[in-house]
Specification:
This protein is an alpha+beta fold. The chain is built from 13 helices and 5 strands.
Length: 321
Amino acid sequence: MTDLNAPTDEELTRRAQAGETAALGLLLARHQAPMRAVALSLLGYGPDAEDAVQDAALMALRRIGDVRDPTAVGAWLRAIVRNSSRMRLRAGRETPGLDGLDHLHAGGHGPSHPLCPPYLSHPERVVDQHAMRDWIWDAVEQLPEPLRLVLMLRHFSDISTYQEIAHACEIPVGTVRSRLNQARAKLSQVLLSTATHVHDDASRLTEDSRQEAEVTLDGARRGCQPREILELWPPETELLGVLSTPGARCHPFPAMRRNRERGVTQHLRHVVASRSVTIWEMDVTNPTGTPDPCPPTLAWLMIRRNRRVRTLRVVFPQPQR
């Protein structure tokens, strides 16, 4: 029996285009069965069909502003599933599990920023910059830490190929693929279950992290960190990766001091921040004539608990030969 008081597809679509996450969540839940039917018709029963539906739901987050006829949104959603399914039938491709969400960085403003590409319609810009962005990042926060890290690297940083992520996290490429698939599936479920919730301001978190990075780098250059930064790097903080001492546990600050003594400086380029995973991407400047220069780019991968850094892994996007 049809609920005569239920909002129509047209009403839900227009509300979603205005940035109402609950409306988009209801719209996706309403059309989930026909979307799955399309995937099953092309891919058969199995995980690929479910993945195609999840991909389509995530694509709808950013493309809802493209809908020109809100009364036909169901056909539009099924078309996205059809395209996603056909992509999965093509062999030998790296298919990003959040195709279409790569531009949803948590911070930044202005038309030149990835949050606001020039080809997007005005309603979609509003969605990307405000409610939808915060909704996505709140869902990312609910992923287990290993899944969250690979997803943030893949879709929100320049360390984005499977090989680079595997190198950065010191795991096999197959594990990267597996974790991304799990992250995509869980993210889709969380998004649908939290559409009506109140979400944190993701841009505020990123801006706070950016300011922290600038103060930390300035302190490293001067050789003296302010107390509020020292409190974020307790004695138990551990340096991991190529800059650590093999077979020994060491704090990151001695490595910072060695870089300062060599005259190597780092300049913040990009920040990706959740409450427990932080990525600072850097450009590096070496003194003229340095015999063993540091690579031109690097990234700090930090795992936190209650804001305090538990581990820091410094990685280089291009593996050194």
